[in-house]
Amino acid sequence: MKAVIVCVSVSHGNTLRVADAMARVLGASVVTPEEADPSELAAADLVGFGSGVFHGRLHPRLTAFARTLPAARGPRSPRARAFVFATSGLPELPVMPFSRPLTRLLDSKGFDVHGPAFACRAFDTWAPFRIVGGLNKRRPDADDLSAARSFAERLREGPGRAV
What we know:
Strands 1, 2, 3, 4, 5 and 6 form a six-stranded mixed β-sheet that branches. Helix 4 links the parallel strand 5 (81-88) and strand 6 (112-121). The two termini are 20 Å apart. Helix 1 packs parallel to helix 6 (142-157). The protein is built from six helices and six strands, in the order βαβαββαβαβαα. The protein has helices spanning 14-26, 38-43, 60-68, 100-108, 127-130, 142-157, and strands at 3-8, 29-31, 46-54, 57-58, 81-88, 112-121. It has 163 residues and is α/β, with parallel strands linked by helices.
């Protein structure tokens, strides 16, 4: 299986650590949106998209990159499999998941997006939290990275199992 993970990790390397844990299980390469080759993504069996959460949304560089992607496959071809993951200082709100806009965008591009998205808490020093030294120090931790590897193992097993 050929896998690629497109990752934006800008603050503390949290998301990159999660991407690397998943990549080891999937045998995937990890690239930034600027390094990603759309033809390589089109040839992949599985493509991951992940970033930290900023103001309740995934990083704008990741969503901007996803908007530029051509349709993943023709209407009669099998859809390329994809997944979304995120790290965040605050918990996700069930009524407004931060992964939903990207998931819908990828679906509109022809990807078969497996869900729900993987998310874990991570060290956050956004302005109000910086005063107290940040939230979620030492996260993602060993348990978070183990959960990321388990998520990747379910993805590796095949469609319909990443729940």
